Amino acid sequence: MTSGARLDTNSQWISRRLEELGVTVAFHSTVGDHLQQHVDVLRIAAQRADVVVMTGGLGPTRDDLTRQALSQLSGRALKMRQQSLVHLEQMFARRNRQMPERNHIQAMFPEGSLEIFNPQGTAPGVDLTLRVSDRHKCRFFALPGVPAEMRRMFDETVAPRLLEMIGSSRQHIEHHVMKFFGVGESDMEQRLGTMIARDRVPRVGITVSSATISLRITAAAPDPQACQRQIETARQEIMSRVGDLYFGHGESYELYHAVQRDLLMRGQSLITVEFGRSAVLADWFASLGKTDAYHGGFCFAGPEELAALLDVPTADAYDVLRKRSGASWLLVVQSYPHLDSDASQALEAQPVDLVVVDPEGRRILASPRIGGHPSIIYSRIAKSALAHLRKQIQRGDQLQAESEAAIS
Amino acid sequence: MTSGARLDTNSQWISRRLEELGVTVAFHSTVGDHLQQHVDVLRIAAQRADVVVMTGGLGPTRDDLTRQALSQLSGRALKMRQQSLVHLEQMFARRNRQMPERNHIQAMFPEGSLEIFNPQGTAPGVDLTLRVSDRHKCRFFALPGVPAEMRRMFDETVAPRLLEMIGSSRQHIEHHVMKFFGVGESDMEQRLGTMIARDRVPRVGITVSSATISLRITAAAPDPQACQRQIETARQEIMSRVGDLYFGHGESYELYHAVQRDLLMRGQSLITVEFGRSAVLADWFASLGKTDAYHGGFCFAGPEELAALLDVPTADAYDVLRKRSGASWLLVVQSYPHLDSDASQALEAQPVDLVVVDPEGRRILASPRIGGHPSIIYSRIAKSALAHLRKQIQRGDQLQAESEAAIS
């Protein structure tokens, strides 16, 4: 990890979880496969923190030094834990393999430490409390580096043990994630004001990923009902401030989910066409699996290729495509901007042509000016296209209501 | 960063660059917006390293503490640098904005430090050497956290200053990146043997991203010619061991670039069809921009939708699509596996049907067994499809050569 061969995503994941549990994260440290450096880093950490969550170094090879470092720091010898050894042997037996001798080390723990059970892999974790001074103890939780194993072990074992440490007043934690699109992070922060202050109860965290803004409400209270009440109050206050930008809730809920929901509610469907350098929309909707809301995605260099395939004049291509596919709506991103392969600077905002063809065959063009960093500009354009489509879908309802009102 | 609100990618990038320059990276440290903790982390770093590269904390707000921490650690007051102030004022003037008072801090440097010029942003970097003891000095390079600014400043200013520190024998650094597909990392390492030993000259680093393996040769020598000779020798040795898996070179060269090259060389072209949950192939080829090698990408839930759109029987859909589009080759991923939205464990290997339709209309089916982590399985499948296609393209040449030999 120190050499940069791999990207560390564990530190971020663990930090978020700890902050949600009410534990402030003050430091991250990364160290290479060097025992003395490993021990030094742990000693420094023990002096400045009450809890240290570690990942990696629990494998069976000589490069894996976490057990030895904990043992050396604490002065407690590594002892074989029979129960862990049996579990290890069973894991190998299930894969019809003989357990190599070197894996024995994975069943060894510093005396006085607890095991952190690993249901998925061969590396159990270590839970060791070190008395640093008369007034200060530090508890180490050592987990494997494999993210899937680490995450499950954190949620199943480390989090409950931490809650127990923190005491009985905050036994329950509930989360609620709200999603927004259509404004930058700083404007959002301004509109939210004190809602996102660090000392607010419940805590509201803001994160941005490719122009989607997430507000994560974390409620900690003696019981689940109190958590839910906190969340509901915060949710209402947030909606009163930025409800116009809200499109749904849930950790991985995105604008295309909101479009799918809008369409299914109305018994309608969509196809998408993307010209140029990306197939983001097609990829997003494909990820939904088979759904009545989506009839397919098309990616061409330009409209001529689409017309050639359909064997119709270019001017008719959108209408023919929509009709043949049987979809209610057609959404077209007419061009994604060219990016230099080594582009690293934000692109100046430039107009991007977005076309919606509605169920009556009317074309509604929008040309929002969109800029941003190369790594996110395509998804920002695609999201702007979805926002344009949603406005038309909702406008359709309004027109419908108006025409019904006129008739009645 | 400590709270997990953002993912740290700078540490990895800087570590790779440092290792390439011959500097071993021993530790990463991350600290929050707390001055005393900041100073403590810098003090620890100064004691254990000769060079510390820092990012972030150079903005104009009260949360930005890097300058103050360096000043406090070194005991050197922050002084205004007139030249930097003028540059700052010019940056604001160019954007037709008045420079706020608080930005003045960005032109202040600890006495005795050097500026690291920032051509893109308002935050110049700081280059400060601290005498830790009679025998040990530590040099700090503080850079802004914005990746694009940081990267350019590292390459333009920090790297040359580091090379100068290291001494005259290694003034030149050259890189060569070779790309491979078709085998796992551990098999690759086994076949490479001592080629990837850390003390080898030139150094060969191995990284894996979504099943593409990169070998990065870093040659350091007194002159560029010597670098090139080192690289050529290493390249030949690598090709003799794993040349069968090689598909091209360059940092961002991927299998779809190799397919584009194969097709353009032969005056041929491709369309792709993806059924199910992803549009990876369409997105990759779209990213190439307008190219004679690619006629478009289609994403449907299943073959029936494709047939309906073309208004032909399902059995004929592939042939009609290929002919109407005018493409030589059609590549179909018949299904991407379903992933649970919260899937975190590797999927068991399962057969995935891949179809190539060749320029004569023959269908060549392959059903490789593919598994892997949810985050990479779709791109692994798409890459396997491209590998299947490339085999057929190259087989086409062989058949052509054989038939020409038979005629002559």
UniProtKB/TrEMBL annotation, chains A, B:
Family annotation (SMART domains): MoCF_biosynth
InterPro entries reported for this sequence: CinA, CinA_KH, Competence-induced_CinA, MoaB/Mog-like_dom_sf, MoaB/Mog_dom
One Pfam assignment: CinA_KH
Annotated ranges, domain MoaB/Mog: 2-165
Stated name of the protein: Competence-damage inducible protein
Higher taxonomy: Bacteria, Pseudomonadati, Planctomycetota, Planctomycetia, Pirellulales
Gene name of the record: cinA
